[in-house]
């Protein structure tokens, strides 16, 4: 009987509604409230009716809100015109659209396209900037590792091959920990066991008569130590010979298939032997088995015989090695490496080696290496020449053989004849032609080089040698003509080297003493493939900088000379030339460069100032004054020229003349700086009232000059008139609220008067006017620290580092004054990570090493600081203070000379000493010594 249910007793499908296909709908009555269910939704009804109408090929019925399209449009139009103010659809009928409307639409479209085109560049630039900013703030993973990917390009094949295989990282830490625990587990071994292990395998021929103990054994501590040392040696050897250790080869055996790198294996064996290590017998046996298999499977593989012979040589079986290589010569008669190895193994017996070389040459007469090996076997020059001539008979085009024959010849005339024959035979050898010219006289050399140029028209080395020959003959003026001809000839045959190659060749000529040739090469080739539209000036400046960094100053000088000739009105090029002459040239050359520069650029203030300064430093005071006089004619009313003239006169102690210059400047080039300079000079000379009067005059015209306010207050402070000084600083903070230094001065004088609260309030006011200012924040910390409020100082410092995380001043203050000695080094490391290349932090690190008596480290960090920023005077101060205790006199003298050349101007300790009116007559080295004594 079938197990299928009766149709009428089966449950109804989900969402079934009786009579739905005939248009009936489900309904419920009050009696159906219990088991009745909700009928289909309106959307489901519409969907089912539409499907049925489609299957019957009829239109969709209008039940459940499905109205005809015409009725909907009619209702929409009626709703649209209910509101008289609604003009929607007024022009949608299209009945009145004519040519004028079409023209208007086209005009509007053209205008829209033009406006879009106008704004497109700015819009695209803005969008690109936004994209760049987004990518910068949200970099992709692949961009974050771009530098590492570029660095992978420098990885060699050996380093790639040495990379370990990817292993199973699951549970790696657990397995490593278990392995460490297993290795760390130890047991107490009785002495008897160690003694038995040590004496196992040995024959005792004597009987000890001493009773070492009740058990008949005696503890031998020397043997125990030897056994432990042996065990340690085994562990070290096993660790060194681990499969993953560098320098080892791995042999993998799978069934009967074996793979190995015989060359690498033998290389490792040779390396061990060269280092004096004993090669394990297991390694030799394994390599022997593999190489014998390789030779048997391919009897014509010459390198296989060589590798097997070298293995036997490493193993000390030289006789076996000779037999193997002899078999290799028989099986591979055309393999050059086999014959070379056979000759090498038989070198101790010269006769046998010669016989082997003759046999190899007979089978391979064109093998240059075999001929050279045969030549090396000969002991006398005559025999060598004989063999060399035989080799040349078979290989007349070999440059190496010609060089050997010429080097074995001592008579210069014979050498010339051999060179003539060689160049006639091998006409395309640059080396032979140039060597022929070198051994010949000047006239003959010129003829030889002319012939060489005809034989090898694409050789630039021959042209360079011809130019060097002219310089050696003293005809320096012909070098430029020779190189010009060389460039034209090489371009004609399309053999012109790159500009970088020419610069390299010029540096080689300079290194070998041919400076004129180097200059001629640069002059003729430095502009090769650089159009006038290119940034040639910057390119040449970079080339000169690179050559100078490599120590090739003549080449750099030639590059800059050409740049000056092409850009005579560029102050940048003139400054670069002057800088090169100043550091790597003579004073006369520097002054000539500067004279030419001011004639070419008479309106350049920097060149006039540099020229006058170099004249003054060359002890030519009158010449410096003349230069400044000429500069006043070209740049009348320039304040920098006046201040430089004042500096010169003050250095010469001509104070009346300095006052004269300042008085003229106050009328012809009046600026707040001129008044400040005048007040400073009067203050240094002790005329404080005149200085105050000049400050007041300047403040009437420039009330916002914070330097004049500062000088005025300092003058009052130096005469103990503290209320007037406070008033001057207070006026300054109101007139120049953006000057942090005035707030610091005002706070300092309030602190001196005992008004700590006012001082703190002044600094707070300054921080409000100058948010995130490191100097004000540091002064606030120091104020609290001077009054032992360390907790407050720590809080202010924490907030300060939040505002200024890259301030070396704040980090230095925190490390040296707010941290314990044990925490200074970690904080310094943290600071260097956040603040890259800050000289103050370098000095702090050097002082930390100094306190730990690590003097070499301290000296290196002090040197880093002064090299990084020579203008930072405190770096020189602390470095000299360090050398006073741990340096030599030569080193201190070197630091003093370099500091004087750098002329530092910044640094708290340095400025405090340098700007003291009592020290204005002191030289930089004297100021450095005073500052080093005051540094704490």
UniProtKB/TrEMBL annotation:
Key words, A-Z: mRNA processing, mRNA splicing, Nucleus, Repeat, TPR repeat
Q: Which Pfam families match?
A: HAT_PRP39_N (PF23240), PRP1_N (PF06424)
Alphabetized InterPro entries for the sequence: HAT, PRP1_N, Syf1-like, TPR-like_helical_dom_sf, TPR_rpt
Cite the repeat ranges for TPR.
839-872
Task: Extract the Gene3D superfamilies matched here.
Answer: Tetratricopeptide repeat domain
What are the Acidic residues biased-composition ranges?
73-86
Q: Which SMART domains match?
A: HAT, TPR
Instruction: Point to the regions of Basic and acidic residues compositional bias.
Output: 39-50, 105-116, 124-138
Compositional bias, Low complexity, is annotated for 245-259
What region holds the PRP1 splicing factor N-terminal domain?
A: 12-172
Which GO terms fall under biological process for this protein? spliceosomal tri-snRNP complex assembly
Sorted alphabetically, the Gene Ontology cellular component annotations on this record are: catalytic step 2 spliceosome; U4/U6 x U5 tri-snRNP complex
Self-association and partners: Associated with the spliceosome.
Q: What is this protein called?
A: PRP1 splicing factor N-terminal domain-containing protein
Source species of the chain: Lentithecium fluviatile CBS 122367
């Amino acid at each position: 009987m079938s197990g299928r249910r009766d149709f009428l007793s089966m449950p109804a499908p989900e969402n079934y509604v009786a009579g739905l296909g005939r248009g009936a709908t489900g309904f419920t009555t009050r009696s159906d409230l219990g088991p009745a269910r909700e009928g289909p939704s309106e959307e489901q009804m519409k969907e089912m009716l539409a499907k049925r109408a489609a299957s019957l090929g009829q239109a969709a019925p209008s039940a459940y809100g499905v109205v005809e399209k015409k009725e909907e449009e009619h209702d929409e139009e009626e709703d649209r015109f209910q509101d008289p103010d609604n003009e929607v659809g007024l022009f949608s009928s299209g009945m009145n659209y004519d040519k004028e409307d079409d023209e208007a639409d086209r005009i509007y479209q053209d205008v829209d396209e033009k406006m879009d085109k106008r704004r497109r560049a700015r819009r695209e630039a803005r969008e690109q900037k936004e994209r760049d900013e987004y990518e910068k703030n949200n970099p992709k993973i692949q961009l974050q590792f771009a530098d590492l990917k570029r660095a992978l390009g420098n990885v060699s094949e050996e380093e790639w091959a040495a990379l370990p295989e990817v292993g199973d990282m699951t549970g790696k830490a657990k397995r490593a920990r278990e392995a460490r625990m297993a290795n760390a587990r130890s047991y107490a071994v009785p002495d008897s066991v160690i003694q038995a292990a040590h004496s196992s395998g040995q024959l005792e021929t004597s009987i000890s008569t001493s009773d070492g103990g009740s058990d008949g054994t005696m503890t031998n501590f020397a043997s125990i130590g030897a056994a432990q040392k042996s065990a340690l040696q085994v562990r070290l050897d096993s660790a060194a010979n681990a499969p993953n250790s560098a320098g080892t080869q791995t042999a993998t055996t799978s069934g009967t298939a074996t793979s190995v790198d015989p060359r690498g294996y033998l290389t490792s064996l040779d390396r061990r032997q060269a280092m004096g290590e004993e090669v394990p017998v297991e390694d030799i046996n394994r390599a022997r088995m593999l190489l014998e298999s390789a030779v048997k499977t391919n009897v014509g593989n010459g390198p296989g015989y060589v590798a097997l012979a070298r293995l036997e040589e490493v193993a000390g079986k030289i006789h076996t090695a000779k037999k193997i290589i002899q078999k290799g010569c028989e099986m591979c008669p055309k393999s050059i490496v086999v014959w070379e190895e056979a000759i090498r193994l038989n070198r101790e017996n010269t006769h046998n080696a010669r016989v082997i070389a003759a046999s190899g040459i007979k089978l391979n007469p064109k093998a240059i290496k075999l001929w050279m090996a045969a030549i090396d076997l000969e002991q006398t020059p005559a025999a060598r020449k004989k063999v060399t001539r035989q080799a040349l008979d078979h290989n007349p085009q070999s440059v190496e053989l010609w060089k050997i024959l010429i080097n074995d010849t001592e008579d210069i005339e014979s050498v010339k004849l051999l060179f003539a024959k060689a160049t006639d035979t091998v006409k395309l050898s640059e080396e032979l032609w140039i060597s022929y010219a070198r051994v010949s006289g000047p006239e003959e050399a010129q003829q030889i080089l002319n012939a060489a140029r005809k034989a090898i028209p694409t050789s630039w080395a021959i042209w360079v040698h011809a130019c060097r020959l002219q310089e050696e003959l003293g005809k320096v003026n012909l070098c430029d003509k020779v190189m010009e001809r060389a460039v034209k000839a090489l371009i004609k045959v399309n053999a012109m080297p790159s500009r970088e190659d020419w610069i390299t060749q010029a540096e080689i000529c300079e290194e070998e003493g041919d400076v004129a040739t180097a200059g001629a090469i640069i002059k003729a080739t430095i502009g090769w493939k650089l159009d006038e539209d290119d940034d040639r000036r910057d390119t040449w400046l970079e080339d000169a900088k690179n050559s100078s960094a490599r120590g090739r100053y003549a080449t750099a000088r030639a590059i800059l000379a050409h740049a000056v000739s092409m850009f005579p009105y560029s102050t940048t090029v003139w400054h670069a030339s002057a800088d090169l002459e100043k550091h790597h040239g003579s004073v006369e050359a520097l002054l000539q460069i500067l004279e030419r520069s001011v004639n070419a650029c008479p309106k350049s203030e920097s060149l006039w100032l540099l020229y006058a300064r170099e004249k003054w430093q060359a002890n030519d005071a009158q010449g410096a004054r003349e230069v400044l006089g000429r500069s006043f004619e070209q740049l009348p009313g320039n304040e920098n020229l006046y201040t430089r003239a004042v500096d010169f006169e003050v250095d010469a102690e001509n104070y009346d003349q300095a006052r004269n210059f300042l008085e003229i400047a106050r009328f012809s080039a009046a600026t707040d700086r001129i008044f400040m300079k005048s007040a400073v000079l009067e203050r240094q000379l002790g005329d404080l009232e005149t200085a105050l009067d000049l400050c007041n005059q300047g403040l009437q015209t420039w009330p916002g000059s914070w330097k004049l306010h500062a000088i005025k207050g300092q003058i009052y402070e130096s005469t103990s008139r503290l209320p007037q000084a406070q008033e001057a600083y207070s006026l300054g903070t109101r007139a120049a609220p953006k000057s942090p230094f005035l707030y610091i001065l005002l706070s300092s004088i309030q602190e001196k008067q005992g008004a700590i609260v006012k001082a703190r309030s002044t600094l707070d006011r300054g921080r409000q006017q100058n948010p995130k200012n490191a100097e004000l924040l540091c002064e606030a910390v120091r104020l609290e620290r001077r009054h032992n409020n360390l907790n407050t100082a720590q809080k202010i410092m924490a907030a300060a580092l939040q505002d200024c995380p890259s301030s070396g001043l704040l980090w230095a203050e925190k490390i040296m004054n707010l941290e314990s000695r044990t925490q200074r080094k970690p904080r310094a490391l943290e600071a260097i990570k956040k603040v890259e290349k800050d000289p103050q932090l370098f000095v702090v690190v050097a002082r930390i090493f100094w306190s730990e008596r690590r003097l070499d480290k301290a000296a290196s960090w002090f040197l880093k600081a002064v090299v990084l920023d020579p203008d930072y005077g405190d770096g020189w101060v602390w470095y000299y203070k360090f050398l006073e205790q741990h340096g030599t006199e030569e080193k201190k003298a070197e630091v003093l000379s370099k500091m004087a050349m750098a002329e530092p101007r910044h640094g708290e300790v340095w400025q405090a000493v340098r700007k003291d009116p009592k020290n204005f007559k002191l030289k930089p080295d004297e100021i450095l010594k005073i500052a080093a004594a005051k540094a704490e």
